[in-house]
Amino acid sequence: MNQILHNHSIDSGHEEDSTIFFIVPAFNEAGIIESIVQSIAKEGFKPVVIDDCSSDQTAQIAYDNGATVLRHPINLGQGAAIQTGIDFCLSKKFSVLVTFDADGQHQVKDAKKMIACILNGEADIVCGSRFLGIHAVGMPPIRAFMLKMAALYTRFSIGLPVTDAHNGLRALSRLAALNIHITQNRMAHASEIMAQVKTLRFKEIPVEILYSDYSLAKGQRMSNALNIFLDLLIGKFLK
Length: 239
Prior knowledge:
The protein has 9 helices and 7 strands, in the order βαβαβαβαβαβααβαα. By secondary structure, the protein is α/β, with parallel strands linked by helices.
């Protein structure tokens, strides 16, 4: 495979170049990872798939389609997978990092708009929002309520005026990537990222999220909202 790594060194001293990495955390996504990797690569971007100890052929399929593959020897969660991807990319030259879910909800066309905002110097971090005028295709009402409550909590807890705190589609400059140190391994990492970049130039843009039976089955349940809150609360006490 291109790279299946359990650990790697980090060198943040590289200057930026035109490379744009897409960090794709993946767990048992063998049925869809091929199309995800191909959609990224055909635009000239570099997919970096973090296989979070899948029990299927996710890693092999991603590699066969040209992705760099970083593999966790044990399942750690999406937050940990994103941090692994960020650490790897910081050891390379790049101009923009994009975090991109592996379940088919995100679209590269939206990521390209976010990348342009970074390259044009409009922001250090650009996040996608499902609540800025573009309808999220197939999103259940209960999911919309949960996400809006999470955004409300983030606005009040850290003072950042976000409308969609748990959207996994983000574009980061090197400065933003250097300021992110994820300790919440699972879903609470999204709010943690917002807290760490609130002093940087931040922007949200509308994106279209595609919900399918597959992505809904992979996504958060309503009960996870309480788990996210508890993870964040415990994290504050442990600091």
